[in-house]
Amino acid sequence: MKRYCWALDLVNDEEKIEEYEAHHKSVWPEIIKSIRDTGIVGMEIHRIENRLFMIMEVDDTFSFERKRSIDSKNPKVREWETLMWQYQQALPTAKPGEKWLLMKKIFEL
Are strands 88-89 and 2-10 parallel, antiparallel or unpaired? Predict the structure, then answer.
């Protein structure tokens, strides 16, 4: 099983951060299904201040291209992503349109 780690910032506003967390306490069932359908078997999001860190574990069916293709055809995923973008802000090094940035592993025990 492969693991990917991602980073993203939230808008630095405590009220918006609370709203973002509330959305993640009741993620839409269509989003959970879409995540699982793309080969993601585990996902965690952690927060410190306005920085998010996501751990994503995937099976052998997962590919970034396949996930992108499936998500682009799913209106509920597009709606969720539009909603979440109200709370998120790209990292300074992100290219236009990029949200979560893949992190580089630098140590493993």
Answer: antiparallel
Judged by phi (left if over 0) then psi (alpha if -120 to 50, else beta), residue 40 lies in beta
- Do strands 88-89 and 51-58 pair parallel, antiparallel, or not at all (unpaired)? unpaired
- pLDDT of the residue at 97: 84
pTM across the whole model: 0.90
What does the DSSP 8-state code read for residue 8? E
Distance CA 23, CA 14 (A): 14
CATH superfamily to which 2-102 belongs: Dimeric alpha+beta barrel. (3.30.70.1090)
